[in-house]
Amino acid sequence: MLTTLLVIVLIDWRATGQTMDVERIATIQAEIWNWTTTLLSNTLGASAVKFPP
């Protein structure tokens, strides 16, 4: 589910024409796309970690 959401966000971000260069974010919309992608990818990474029983 998280992977699907991440892919959808990345495709939609690209479709809006916003730059994906995180060092040169010029608009509020690009910043929202950046933070949404960051939060989803970090959540995906955290959910993939297996903790010992």
Q: How is this fold's topology laid out?
A:
Elements: H1 2-15, H2 28-48
Helix pairs in contact: 1-2
Helix and strand composition category: mainly alpha
Percentage of β-strand residues: under 5%
DSSP, total strands: 0
Number of helices: 2
User: Whole-Å distance between the termini?
Assistant: 24 Å
The biggest beta sheet is recorded as: none
Poorly predicted sequence stretches spanning 5 or more consecutive residues = none
Form type = elongated
Mean pLDDT: 83
Question: What would you report as the Rg, rounded to the nearest angstrom?
Answer: 13 Å
Helix content: 55-70%
Quaternary state reads single chain
N-to-C SSE string, H for helix and E for strand: HH
Provide structural commentary.
The protein has 53 residues and is mostly helical. Helices cover 66% and strands 0% of the residues. The protein has 2 helices and no strands. The chain has helices spanning 2-15, 28-48. Helix 1 (2-15) runs antiparallel to helix 2 (28-48). The longest helix is centred in the C-terminal third of the chain and has 21 residues, at 28-48. The mean pLDDT is 83.
